[in-house]
Amino acid sequence: MVNPLYEQSANPFEIAQEAADQIAKISGIQSHAIALTLGSGWAKAADLIGETVSEIPASEIIGFSKPSVVGHVGTLRSVKLPNGNHALVIGARTHYYENQGVRSVVHSVRTAAKTGAKIMILTNGAGGIKPQWDGGAAVLISDHINLTANSPLEGANFVDLTDLYSKRLRNLAHEVDGSLEEGVYVQFRGPHYETPAEVQMAKILGGDIVGMSTALEAIAAREMGMEILGMSLITNLAAGIQSTPLNHAEVLEAGKNAEARISKLLAEIIKKF
């Protein structure tokens, strides 16, 4: 079946509403208070934040497809939080480099908003520019630089991105772990890793973290009126900072090694919401 988001005449917000309606019908949960997109290394957090009451293969919901990246689970989970609210856990991220269009990249975020979520948590595995972040550091995203040369916004839609990554939510994270550092995330197109020269460019521009996701999703979340918390797991030092070649197997291994620690951290932060 052709993804309806590919049709330029389609309304992506109506498709997101249809997806949200399908999630409500299948899960039996009419509203979600928060949503989480769990990137490499973060998946265990879904098991720690509460009781899973529904798990849906994402490909059964309009606009979603099976993930193409090893390490992404491809499901949509409704989790009952201790306070009685529900969280929508998104394990089906579409990356910009998959060439499915920006609408597909941000469909999960728009769907989450249509389920009622007011807070969007975006996590990822990424490369670090600061040498002290080697070894699986969790870093709060304070801002981003979008180097995809694209945007999820269509038409004359001028969305303010001041405080895009909520200072309030970052302060709550600091209450859980005062040692958490912050950094500026730079989204490249991918899927190739950045060259050492590109990493140095990102550094000169003010970047601290390099990756291939999150920025476009954050813009769409702000458009939908959501409050955003962004967190990166530094799975490796970026090219030219790290002395050895980069490979995806190392990223997965670093994520696996850090998974229990950072998932517990995220679960403790969510309790503050």
Could you list some keywords that capture this structure?
single chain, 273 residues, alpha/beta, Rossmann fold, 5-stranded mixed beta barrel, 7 helices
Give an overview in words.
The protein is α/β, with parallel strands linked by helices and 273 residues long. It has a single domain, classed as Nucleoside phosphorylase domain (Rossmann fold). It has helices at residues 12-27, 45-48, 102-114, 167-176, 196-205, 215-223, 248-270; strands at 34-37, 51-57, 75-80, 86-90, 119-128, 138-146, 181-187, 209-211, 227-237. It has a 5-stranded mixed beta barrel with strand order 5-8-7-6-9, surrounded by 5 helices. A hairpin with a 5-residue loop joins strand 3 and strand 4. The termini are far apart.
Q: What is the helix content?
A: 25-40%
Name the helix and strand elements from N-terminus to C-terminus, one letter apiece: HEHEEEHEEHEHEHEH
Structural class call reads alpha/beta
CATH domain topology: Rossmann fold
Q: Strand share of the residues? A: 15-25%
Tally of individual helices: 7
Average the pLDDT over all residues and give the rounded result: 92
- CATH homology-level superfamily: Nucleoside phosphorylase domain
The quaternary structure here is single chain
Largest sheet properties? 5 strands, mixed, barrel
- The CATH architecture designation is 3-Layer(aba) Sandwich
Unreliable parts? none
Number of strands: 9
CATH class division: Alpha Beta
Report the C-alpha radius of gyration, rounded: 17 Å
Strand order within the widest beta sheet: 5-8-7-6-9
How many domains comprise the coordinates?
Answer: 1
Q: Report the span from N to C terminus.
A: 39 Å
Identify the overall geometry. Answer: globular
